[in-house]
Amino acid sequence: MEATDKKLLKVLRGETVTPPPIWLMRQAGRYLPEYKETRAHAGGFLDLCYRQDLAEEVTLQPIRRFGFDAAILFADILLLPQALGQKLWFETGEGPRLEPVTDTNTLKGADEVHEVLNPIYETVKRLSGSLPSETTLIGFAGAPWTVATYMIAGRGTPDQKPAHDLLASNPAAFHRIIDRIVEGTVEYLSKQIVAGAEVVKLFDSWAGSLKGADFDKVCIEPNQRIVEALRSRHPDTPIIGFPRGAGDRSVDFAKATGINCIAIDQSMNAEWARDNLQSICAVQGNLDPTLMVGTGDALEKHVEKLINTLGDGPYIFNLGHGITPDADPNNVSKLIELVRK
Ligand code: CP3
Q1: Has residue 2 got a pLDDT over 80?
Q2: Residue 82: helix, strand or coil by DSSP?
Q3: CA angle centred on 211, ends 210 and 213, rounded to 5°
Q4: Confidence tier at 178 by pLDDT (50, 70, 90)
């Protein structure tokens, strides 16, 4: 299939595609027995990310099983801090740990990240050869604020307090960290695009904890700088933004960044998104991930409502956040059937 005919790329150019293309955040993951098997074989989570053959395999697993319209590169947003020289490890059952930073003096330059990240570009290259011709390949990175919250706290935090504290106590140092992430992310995503990523997505998972002027300066501006730099190098590559929890500030986010598509979380009202966002860019989302757990009886009603609300404009079907390890793969099959019906 010609790249221009791929459903996801059509939507990202502003076309309405019926039925809408579908993929799921975290579609490669622990709810799939085949993922758990490959993960066990790899050893650690980071080994899985850096082993090109295994990262390729887990990216392809959900495509083989379900036939999604897009594949998302298997990697993690915390590989960039690691490439910038920060120590990173994953505690089993607890999530990521990093040696916290309070400034950039211990970090490498943005042009030095490729040494660590080269295997990721290799995985992208392999995938662009092995994916079915109708499947779109999505590359990604974390947005600067979200990445900074982990770099500064050294772990995931419910309220991102350590990062907020540094922003308040030493804004210059805080912004040096943000700037380094912006520069590193441009390098990282640019290489993913050269290797074959057809779309890139910026995950700002903790955007919701930034209010007022902080949202403008720490969420919108850094995302906007990345979009601008990528556009100048790769004008044809569409970009998806995901300011999770941003609520009505999503309008300013979409307008200022100039992204091609905004991913919305499950807390957002779909009618509101249709009326306020879909005229600015395409919309992706926002089925509640908890519907994928259990019997799946409520799926039909919710899928119908989302498609009736957002399906008359540029729309990509997805969840409002990642699918969880306790989800039932049978519900994913059922979901795809309902969306494509
Ligand atoms: O399928 C995909 O979506 C592609 C791969 C992907 C992963 N992480 C794999 C992963 C993507 C796009 C991410 C993004 C990511 N990573 C985000 C932003 C999106 C979001 O969910 O808000 C964040 C905040 C991270 C950081 C991260 N990675 C955390 C906090 C954790 C631990 C929590 C958890 O879910 O276990 C991870 C680990 C991780 N990243 C796993 C996967 C499949 C699970 C690790 C395992 O297999 O043990």
Answers
A1: no
A2: helix
A3: 105
A4: very high
**How, if at all, do strands 136-142 and 199-204 pair?**
parallel
Q: Which atom of ligand 1 sits closest to the CA of residue 59?
A: 1
N-to-C CA span, the chain? 22
Strands 95-98 and 88-91: antiparallel
308 C-alpha to ligand 1 centroid (Å): 31
Closest C-alpha to ligand 1, atom 34 = 95
> Rounded distance, CA 35 to CA 54, Å?
10
CA angle 129–133–138, rounded 5-degree value:
70
Residue with structure tokens 């709810």?
A: 31
CB-count burial class (<10 Å; 0-12, 13-18, 19+) for 102: middle
The model's pTM is 0.97
Q: Which of 240, 189, 238, 235 is nearest to 75 (CA)?
A: 189
Three-state SS letters, 131-195: CCCCCEEEEEEECHHHHHHHHHHCECCCCCHHHHHHHHHCHHHHHHHHHHHHHHHHHHHHHHHHH
